[in-house]
């Protein structure tokens, strides 16, 4: 007699065949799949939960309007009645472990654990990798003790991937919080161009250490705070030269230089021309611009 495809059935339809599972979670499939060349499917809908662990190769997983490239170590997840697709990508053979399961009528806080996620992270070399392999091996063996171990392994995988996802969320929240602090530092620098960097003040303002600020500021804005200060001073000097009646000495003071000669050397070093040459070059380009009367 043909054995039914338990993974394709409604949860309640599997219970008789899964009678050796005395309570949920009920695991209707746990196997290793070696995809043929150019293998794919799309628009598939299961009536149960499914976890996939990529053993090797690369694939393209689609679900919920999103597409994800998956490779060795990646765990991805789809829910009952979510249309999804998967195809192997050229290169090494795509091999994965699939675990299909459900909780019958027993409520389970799946969304409290995974919060809508489909990609659960990469676990190459992690204990989760071994849990998947052991689950598949135990699933092939009869006996209540093996069923209990399969259930324990599945719940451990869910707990570990949930913990990993939670850690990523906390890390992302920390990055967003620190980004706001770095923007605060950047704005502070721009608003105090007439002063040198006051490190203790910036640390108090941001709640971050100066060494951390230097590293993260460069990662975020592509420049160190000191380099940004110089760039902002040059930009402000250009703006004032073109849009205000201030003398070059007054402009220098407004961007933090009491010595006009030191300001001139800095400006020429960074731009390759003096402030006078800068204004003249623009005037020669556009004769319609009316420049204020400048005094050096």
UniProtKB/TrEMBL annotation:
This is AraC family transcriptional regulator. The keyword Lipid metabolism does not apply. It comes from the Bacteria. SUPFAM superfamilies: Homeodomain-like (SSF46689), Regulatory protein AraC (SSF51215). SMART domains: HTH_ARAC. Keywords: Activator, DNA-binding, Transcription, Transcription regulation. The keyword Transcription regulation applies. Signal peptide: none annotated. PROSITE patterns: HTH_ARAC_FAMILY_1 (PS00041), HTH_ARAC_FAMILY_2 (PS01124). Pfam families: AraC_binding, HTH_18. PANTHER family: HTH-TYPE TRANSCRIPTIONAL ACTIVATOR RHAS-RELATED. Residues 183-281 form the HTH araC/xylS-type domain. InterPro entries: AraC-bd, AraC_XylS_family_regulators, Homeodomain-like_sf, HTH-like, HTH_AraC, HTH_AraC-typ_CS, RmlC-like_jellyroll.
């Amino acid at each position: 007699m043909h054995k039914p495809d338990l993974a394709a059935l409604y949860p309640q339809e599997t219970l008789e065949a899964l009678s050796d599972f005395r309570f949920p979670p009920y695991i209707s499939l746990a196997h290793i799949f070696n995809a043929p060349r150019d293998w794919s499917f799309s628009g598939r809908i299961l009536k149960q939960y499914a976890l996939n662990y990529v053993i090797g190769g690369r694939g393209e997983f689609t679900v919920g309007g999103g597409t994800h490239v998956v490779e060795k170590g990646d765990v991805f997840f789809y829910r009952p009645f979510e249309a999804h697709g998967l195809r192997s990508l050229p290169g090494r053979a795509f091999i994965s472990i699939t675990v299909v399961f459900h909780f019958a009528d027993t409520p389970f806080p799946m969304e409290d654990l995974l919060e809508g996620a489909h990609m659960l992270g990469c676990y190459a070399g992690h204990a989760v990798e071994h849990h998947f392999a052991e689950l598949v091996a135990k699933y092939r063996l009869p006996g209540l003790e093996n069923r209990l171990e399969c259930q324990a392994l599945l719940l451990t995988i869910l707990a570990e991937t949930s913990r990993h996802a939670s850690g990523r969320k906390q890390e992302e929240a920390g990055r967003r919080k620190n980004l706001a602090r770095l923007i605060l530092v950047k704005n502070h620098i721009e608003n105090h161009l007439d002063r040198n960097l006051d490190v203790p003040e910036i640390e108090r303002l941001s709640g971050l250490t100066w060494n951390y600020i230097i590293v993260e500021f460069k990662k975020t804005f592509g420049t160190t705070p000191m380099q940004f200060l110089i760039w902002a001073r040059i930009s402000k000097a250009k703006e004032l030269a073109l849009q205000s009646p201030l003398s070059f000495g007054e402009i220098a003071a407004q961007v933090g230089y009491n010595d006009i000669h030191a300001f001139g050397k800095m400006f020429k070093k960074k731009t390759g021309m003096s402030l006078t040459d800068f204004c003249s070059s623009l005037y020669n380009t556009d004769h319609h611009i009316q420049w204020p009367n400048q005094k050096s």
